[in-house]
Amino acid sequence: MDFAEDPDHQLIREAVREVCARFPDEYWAELDQSHTFPWEFYAAMAKGGWIGIAIPAGYGGGGRGITEASIVLEEVAASGACMNGASSIHLSIFGMHPVVRHGSEELKQRYLPRVAAGDLHVAFGVTEPDAGLDTTATRTRAAPPSARKSASSEPVTPAETTRTSRARYGEALR
User: Model pTM greater than 0.90?
Assistant: First the structure.
């Protein structure tokens, strides 16, 4: 087994480091202090093609895989951006993978190009107010048509919902 790093991976590392070098520690400290999202950093990463690295090229992405996406996040975190930088982009990079793998063609066409371009910022919720970190305690459930009371009943049994801090910037996938 050859454990040598793929030359493309080294090029990815170097290119991401170049982008990150434009955002010094002071940038991150100021945003952390003001609780502000790093929009300039996000835009620079999108412009460089890094947000869409794992989105297929046919939908405007880089067509690479999860390994290359992980390298991007590793370099962002190592740059001094730490988790502030990595968490600002990680969901847009990884969060659309279920759509890539299982989404309808219409869903892919509608959303993947926008995510790859940086025009659509991805977010998701994983819990409910009464569940906290115990996501197994959530009450919202999705049911296939065969398990519903009638063909017209809703596919999701909703529980209490709350907005997240990014909700005011979001749009729902429908």
Answer: no
